[in-house]
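User: Reviewer 2 asked us to show a designed sequence for the structure in our supplementary figure. I'm pasting the structure tokens here. Could you produce the per-position amino acids so we can include them in the response letter?
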């Protein structure tokens, strides 16, 4: 019998938790009684996140997830997990004509290779429990085009496609795999960019305005919880109505 939206006592790995959406996901899960392992590259900002978390049993691991050695060290340090939330990601804007292997890899290694290879290695080491939930933070850029976003859009679209396959392969173990695709979310980074660039046209494309990091964290909470026990292979779009156009 599922216990609704309760995630108390669950052990959840959150990547990209030194900043923005990942930091809020870790904060939210900890407030809801989960114990979290947070990762990112910047140890100072990770330590800041860690010290702000409610509850107990949390830990941090600093490392660059595009490196196999860092992924292996992270996995070796982990307990068995009920949830994995891949929020680490980057974007490099570039007109398609000027895209080269270096910029393409700079995006795809972080947004696609790292979360897929980390997940696969976690499974090989049996670190994800039956009943567990794996979440990828994709983007509506994986579903609709925007100039300059080729590498980012391709990486996020590939996550959505890969999620369906993972969901099928892992269903026999009762491990669920889903994506969340946010529209533009207000983060400190966006606010700082807004000082020099006009985002008002972009904001108008979101009928409910830009989202907040809390909006994404609430979706994560649902998909980690027993309330979503029948949800797998899905892509939850949370974009204030952007893709409803
Ligand atoms: N913000 C939005 O509007 C928006 C919309 C849709 C989807 N998303 C997606 O949501 C996720 C979080 O975005 P955000 O806005 O919160 O970004 P952010 O504030 O820039 O945070 C990105 C996080 O990813 C980590 N990271 C980057 N490269 C890494 C690497 N090689 N190894 C390990 N960690 C790495 C960063 O860690 P360090 O800083 O410690 O290196 C940081 O914690 C991303 O996947 C993004 O594509 C964001």
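Assistant: Here is a per-position design you can include in the supplement:
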């Amino acid at each position: 019998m599922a216990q609704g939206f309760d995630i108390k006592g669950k052990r959840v790995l959150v990547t990209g938790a030194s900043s923005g959406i990942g930091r809020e996901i870790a904060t939210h899960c900890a407030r809801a009684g989960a114990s979290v392992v947070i990762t990112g590259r910047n140890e100072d900002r990770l330590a800041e996140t860690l010290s702000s978390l409610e509850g107990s049993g949390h830990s941090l691991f600093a490392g660059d997830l595009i490196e196999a050695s860092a992924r292996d060290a992270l996995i070796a340090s982990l307990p068995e997990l009920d949830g994995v939330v891949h929020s680490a990601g980057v974007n490099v804007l570039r007109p398609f004509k000027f895209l080269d292997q270096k910029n393409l890899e700079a995006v795809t290694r972080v947004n696609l290779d790292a979360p897929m290879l980390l997940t696969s290695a976690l499974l090989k080491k049996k670190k994800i429990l039956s009943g567990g939930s794996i979440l990828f933070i994709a983007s509506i850029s994986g579903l609709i085009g925007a100039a300059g976003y080729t590498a980012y859009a391709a990486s996020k679209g590939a996550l959505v496609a890969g999620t369906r396959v993972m969901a099928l392969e892992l269903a026999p173990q009762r491990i669920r795999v889903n994506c969340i695709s946010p529209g533009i979310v207000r983060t400190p980074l966006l606010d700082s960019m807004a000082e020099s660039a006009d985002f008002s046209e972009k904001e108008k494309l979101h009928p409910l305005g830009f989202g907040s990091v809390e909006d994404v964290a609430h979706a994560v909470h649902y998909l980690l919880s027993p309330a979503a026990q029948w949800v797998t292979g899905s892509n939850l779009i949370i974009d204030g109505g952007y893709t409803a156009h």
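For the response letter, you might also mention the following. The helical segments are 20-31, 43-52, 68-77, 101-124, 150-170, 188-194, 200-204, 213-224. The beta strands are 11-14, 35-40, 59-62, 81-86, 128-137, 176-182, 185-186, 211-212, 235-238.
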